[in-house]
Amino acid sequence: MSEHGGETKDSSGCAGADSDRLLPLSVSDKLTIVVGNTHFSEEKKLLVQSCDYFQALYRSGMKECQQEEIHLKCLRARGFLIALAVLRGEIPILDEDDIVEAIECAAFLQVTPLTKYLIDFIDADNCLLMYHTAATFGLMRLHHAAALFIRDMYDDLEAEVRNTLPSDLIAYIESLTPQIFVAVGAHVTCGVDETVHAASRTVCFLDETSKGWKVLTDLPLEASTSMAGVTVLDNKLYIIGGVHGVQKQVVDGCFCYSPENNSWRRSAGPTQPRYNLSLVGVDSCLYAIGGEYERTVMSSVEIYNLKSERWTFAAHLPRPAAGAACTKTMSRIFVCLWKPMETSEIYEYISGTDEWRLVTTLIRHQSYGHCLVGHRDNLYIMRNGPSDDFLRCLMDCYNLTTAQWTSLPGHFANSRGSLFTAVVRGDSVFTLNRSMTLEYMVHGRNWKPRRQMKGFPRSGSVWTFLLRLPDALMLH
After folding, report:
1. Is omega for the bond preceding 436 within 30 degrees of 0, making it cis?
2. Which of 61, 84, 92, 407 has its Cβ near the most Cβ atoms within 10 Å?
3. Banded pLDDT at 59 (limits 50, 70, 90)
4. Dihedral, 6, 9, 13, 18 alpha carbons, nearest 10
5. How far apart are CA 46 and CA 49, in angstroms?
6. Containing domain of residue 68, as a range?
7. Is the confidence at residue 14, as pLDDT, over 60?
8. Are residues 90 and 158 in the same domain?
């Protein structure tokens, strides 16, 4: 089973294969599920596709396969109701009791989409409950995800952790590596006779203890971060495309850095060479979105499946776009496209149907969205100030649950585009320029400055992301 709402991932890509091939011929029509005193009527196909429990049941040949009514005695009705809501594509809001019952149901029935939904629902208020309850019911994927969230926010949560959790659960959290803020400047490829530039071709991380920057690794000689696609997936850094030379020759190939091995690996690039693309990673797939080739802006999109190591084309963007603002949140992909006059449109890629769906539209006088940041069910769009003023950054928030826009009060200093490189860690947002690294706390839907550290000591554009680094790399 896959992580895309119960769909099965084809070896050729992440958009899903024909999941009907997993179903026995006898599975059809409705099934009545009795939980306690509550009766639920649901399509057998949906249950078999989404729950390992029902899939195993209908493959077993047991007498229950012929029954129109099945009793689940180990669950509570509210947990099963939440599971059905998630399977239908709804977004239920969960209180503490709901979370416990949902975890119980996800563990007992092995409901992959519900587990994924719970992971996306983790926040500072519920992470300890998620962590402890998932450990109790043996839902280890959620248990690990909640532990990582707590580790990333340990400075804020340590006191509560020590007063709430048993020692073995505390020890597991402290054994994990927190995410570190990492940056790399936009550099072209470096030939062997260009060693004068090699010193600046480094990937650096922020040491939050000393509040300064340290070198993590050097870029491969063939790689370029100038107009490239850069993202992190499964704690590996990927650099795709980019250009070298005044003629904007496209760099072919995909460069992958593994902190675990402190090494680079090169693999095949997209079928369509491209630069100035947007790159995002979700569920073991890389999405190369739009970009340019031979100075022509493109709408094509390609997906790289890390498991099959194959590129496949996906649905084109609604219109050509280069360097489009793009983000992921709650395992969903969003892209911001400009549309004259003064219109920013946000589209979501729907993997199950391989389509780009318009989510919302923002119209602001003399202003377009230049950066998109996702934090749980909120999308933050950063745009230039009035009259193309890029020294001031205005921000609007779109809530995916309520489908409502909110304008954040005031404006944000945006010297050299710092807010256009924002990344989220837990409930913090890190922004960066040459002058300073500024961390914001996300409070409600607003951003409040929290602390300031040293800026990135490189000129020009910069890419920022998060990695979990082994202790040996942090100390070297």
Report:
1. no
2. 84
3. confident
4. -90
5. 5
6. 1-121
7. no
8. no
